[in-house]
Amino acid sequence: MTLRAELTLTRGSFELSVSLSVPEGGVLAVLGPNGAGKSTVLSCLAGLVRAERAHVRLGGRVLDGDGVRVPAHERGVGLLAQNALLFPHLSVLDNVAFSPRSRGASKAEAREVARRWLDEVDAREFADRSPAELSGGQAQRVGLARALAGEPGLLLLDEPLAALDVDAAPAVRGVLRRVLRESGRKLATVLVTHDPLDALTLADHVAVLAEGRIVEQGPAREVLAAPRTVFTARLAGVNLVPGTATRTGSGAVVRTASGQSFHGVPARDLADGDAAVAVFNPGAVAVHPHDAEVAGSPRNVVNAVVTAVEPHGPVVRLRTREGISADLTPASVADLALEPGTPVRLAVKAAVVAVHAAPEPARGPDPAIGW
Ligand SMILES: Nc1ncnc2c1ncn2[C@@H]1O[C@H](COP(=O)(O)OP(=O)(O)OP(=O)(O)O)[C@@H](O)[C@H]1O
C-alpha cells in the first residue's frame, strides 16, 4: 500500500513539519542527527503520538485527517524497534501468532501463519523457546516475524539493528533485506536508521531530517553519493565545504564565509550565487609538509593543523582543525611525522571535487566539515 503523510507538531521549542510518500513495495530510510524528530515521525504514523495537523493515508484509507483518527491497533501498521519487546510469558510461536489471533484467526490458524513467518525469518527452530532464550539477533528476527504476521500495510522499523553487536547485525540485515524484497512488495516501509549502510542496503529512497524538517531526499545512492548537508556528508564519510558558488566556464568555485576558495566540477543545476557545497572524498586529499610547494594540475590547497590521527579500516584518517579529513597509509603518517598539532598543507584536485547547490544555507563550522 502506498503511504502519504503530512505531519505538523510542536513540542516546546521543537517543531516537526514533514511530508512523506512511500510507494507500495518501497522502503524509505529516514536519517538524521539525534533529536531530529525521526522517532516522532514513526510514532505519529503508528498512531502513538497525536500530531497537531496530520494527514496520513495508507492505500485508500485515511488514518489521520479529515476528522478521522484511526487508533493505533486498527491502523494495520507493524512496528519493530531496537528491541523486539516480545511478550516474555508467551512462546516464540505464540508471540508471532498474537497478531493473527487478535485479528480473529483461530488458535490453529494463527499458529500456522506464525510458523510461516518464522520460516521467512529463518527462526522456525526457535518456535517453542521462550523469548528469554533468544539472542538479540534471534529476537529481532522473531520481532520482524511478529510485525509482519499481522499483515500490515505499513511497516515501521525504528533502528532495528542498533542494539545488536557487530557480529549479529549483518545476519539480521540480510534477513531484513530479503524479507523486504520478497514479502514487502505489498507494504510501504519506513526505516529509521543512523547507519548509511542500512540506508544503502535496505532502502530505495532516503529522507534526511534535521530539526524537524526534511533537508534532503531522493534515491538512496544519489543522496549519499552527492550529499548537500553536513549531516549527510558525515554519514557518507566525505568532506563537505559550504559556501557560495560562482560558475567559471566549465568549472565552479565555492567561496566560504572566511574567503577560502574551492574549485570543482559543477552539478548541472548549479547557478551563480547559489548556496553550494564542495564535496570530496578523504581519499582524494593529499597531505604535504606545511612548507611544501604544491604544483601540478589545478588544485585546491589549504593550510591546516592536524587534530586527530585515527585508524580507519586499512588506512589512517587524519582530521584537521579546518574540518577537512584525509585518508593516508600508515607509512605516510610515519614519513610525515603526523600527530595532533602538526601543521600541514592539504591539496585536492579540482577534478575530484563535486560542487552541488545546497538546499539551505549550509551549516557547521567554517570553512569545511570533514570526517
Ligand atoms: N515525550 C516527549 N516529550 C517532550 N519532548 C520530546 C518527547 N520525546 C521527544 N521529544 C523531543 O522531540 C524532539 C525529537 O525527538 P525524537 O526522539 O523524535 O528525535 P530522533 O530523531 O528520533 O532522535 P534520536 O536519534 O536521538 O532517537 C527532540 O527535541 C526531543 O527532545
UniProtKB/TrEMBL annotation:
ATP-binding recorded as keyword: yes
Pfam families (alphabetical): ABC_tran (PF00005), TOBE (PF03459)
The ABC transporter domain, residue ranges: 2-236
InterPro entries the UniProt entry points to: AAA+_ATPase, ABC_transporter-like_ATP-bd, ABC_transporter-like_CS, Mo/tungstate-bd_C_term_dom, Molybdenum_import_ModC, P-loop_NTPase, Transp-assoc_OB_typ1
SUPFAM superfamilies, per the entry: MOP-like (SSF50331), P-loop containing nucleoside triphosphate hydrolases (SSF52540)
Gene Ontology MF annotations: ATP binding; ATP hydrolysis activity
Swiss-Prot/TrEMBL keywords: ATP-binding, Nucleotide-binding, Transport
SMART domains per the UniProt record, alphabetical: AAA
Lineage, broadest ranks: Bacteria, Bacillati, Actinomycetota, Actinomycetes, Pseudonocardiales
Protein name per its UniProtKB record: ABC-type sulfate/molybdate transport systems, ATPase component
